[in-house]
Amino acid sequence: MNTENHSQTAAFLWSIADLLRGDFKQSQYGRIILPFTLLRRMECVLDPTKEAVIRESYAQEGRPDLVRERLLLRAAGQQFFNASKLTLGTLSDTQTAADLMSYVQSFSKDAREIFEHFHFEDFVQQLSSANLLYQVVQRFAATDLSPERISNFGMGIIFEELIRKFAESSNETAGEHFTPRDIVHLTTSLVITGQDDKLKPNSIVTIYDPTAGTGGFLSEGDEYIQSISQQVTVSLHGQELNPESYAICKADMLIKGQDVTSIKLGNTLSDDQLADSRFDFMLSNPPFGVEWKKVQKQITDEHSEKGFNGRFGPGLPRVSDGSLLFLLHLVSKMRDPREGGSRIGIILNGSPLFTGGAGSGESEIRRYLLQNDLVEAIIALPTDMFYNTGIATYVWVLSNHKAAVRQGKVQLIDGSQHFAKMRKSLGSKRQYLTEEQIDELVRLYGRFEQTPQSKIFPVEAFGYRRITVERPLRLNFQVSPERIEKVLAEKAIQKRDASARQQLIEALQTLDANQLHRNREQFSKLLNKTLNAHNVAVSGAELKAILNALSERDPEADICMVKGQPEADAGLRDNENVPLGESVYDYFEREVKPHVPDAWIDESKRDEQDGEVGVVGFEIPFNRHFYVFQPPRPLAEIDRDLKACTDRIKQMIEGLSA
């Protein structure tokens, strides 16, 4: 059956939703059409062995559930069975709902669970109340979804088409659980292209998606490998948080004859249900910029207690965006390079490229990925590619088994201009990638050459050391009435009783109010002498408060010294980012000294990992590398345009008043 017919079958199944108009919201259609399609497909698949399963079911009555289940699966010859005599075609028209639920309850555990996650029973009751159930059941019963007519692969395409229609009809949430096919196709192609050594005949290849949604990446990965290689078994693994998406994903897998035991429900970050597994290929589109506050405790505990034996050793990003946690999670699932290693394709928004300065969690994660040479390429996508957001996005391709020419290097590809406009936008998705554009991006990646759209950098190019540049504190001192007011406002002085305060003020007033002192040591001596002469005893804290109130910054004043060393002025403190691999001292002499001759580097600010002066940071300023300067237009040209515009406005005004 060709793709054309698949689309027709999908359109026919979706047209059954016309019965639902008025009684159901458009966003609910999918919740009815998808489980019924699944039910009918399963029925058709099980048809040849149905009699044998029913006979076996009678024979095994009273046996333990596990034993019975195993024997019935064997009798069915599938990954699932149904032990009921009923079919959609034989449900009674008087007690349709009761019959239908009894029929669904007779499925094996995995299949039954799918219908529960769809809240199938609730919808069956609603259909029954609206007197629509029997009609809907009849329509599905009359549709031939048998494997002879439609292969597993074809059924997968039909099911995906329905999922897409469902996603489009309930636009608001579509993007959360559904990645557009063009993006899925591009990411999958980038990750699996050129991996022939993994795809030898009779090999088993594993694919994993920690944010599986409705299973788009898993299906596409499977499809892609089947299309380029013979006799390769593809084993799919995934985890999904949303029960309904999970049900769709699992249903899609069952329909294709995949083993569904490796599709899990739950939060991947706090409860990894495939903890000990490693995979060949990993594909993921985690939610953009979603906070991880709900699971903060589990993640922080894993980070601090397990360190690099857990998933989050390198660091933790800010709580407002968990996408880098998914990236670390995937890296932890890479196979040992000696066993062929792994490749990852993950879609992220812009913030993981540059959010967070040196020493921050984000920077430390980038540092770990880059210094361990895991980042192979980053491809910038056009805007307006997703159903629920128009922001700029990037595909990261990672590998722990890079080809020799790529070692120590990162390729950045600007695909932001590769797009075609959609005839009709779907939510925020106004643009898409054509097959040719996908091929072109994959070729740009595969060629690994410097072009205006593809730039290649050594890993170190993204690193820098942040040094702290100090400048000396310079203060003048004066005992003017305004500054004496400030002395009284100091907390330490306010603690003295009124007469002690009065005594202090009188002592200060004996000093010359007009004289400006530009050396702290000399002024301190004078101040101490004056206070002693007037029998005013002050503590260290009080003396500090008095000096603070009587001082002002003054670039002409002498440098304030402490133990023979200049004291740093916190207000003038600055940071400089020195490219990694360059001496911080050479940089300082060249870039800083000529402008501020009295500055120095604070050598106590060192990197935790290597102990060198300056904290190491990593960022990937993607756009900077592809920025092309466009000179502004000549002024005469702008003037001419302005004049034409004002003339037009004048004519319009004259036309109105005429």
UniProtKB/TrEMBL annotation:
GO terms for biological process: methylation. The keyword Disulfide bond does not apply. Pfam families: HsdM_N (PF12161), N6_Mtase (PF02384). It comes from the Bacteria. InterPro entries: D12N6_MeTrfase_N, DNA_Adenine_Mtase, DNA_methylase_A-5, DNA_methylase_N6_adenine_CS, SAM-dependent_MTases_sf. Keywords: Methyltransferase, Restriction system, S-adenosyl-L-methionine, Transferase. It is an enzyme of class 2 (transferase). Residues 155-451 form the DNA methylase adenine-specific domain. Its EC number is 2.1.1.72. GO terms for molecular function: methyltransferase activity. It catalyses: a 2'-deoxyadenosine in DNA + S-adenosyl-L-methionine = an N(6)-methyl-2'-deoxyadenosine in DNA + S-adenosyl-L-homocysteine + H(+). Residues 10-140 form the N6 adenine-specific DNA methyltransferase N-terminal domain. Belongs to the N(4)/N(6)-methyltransferase family. This is site-specific DNA-methyltransferase (adenine-specific).
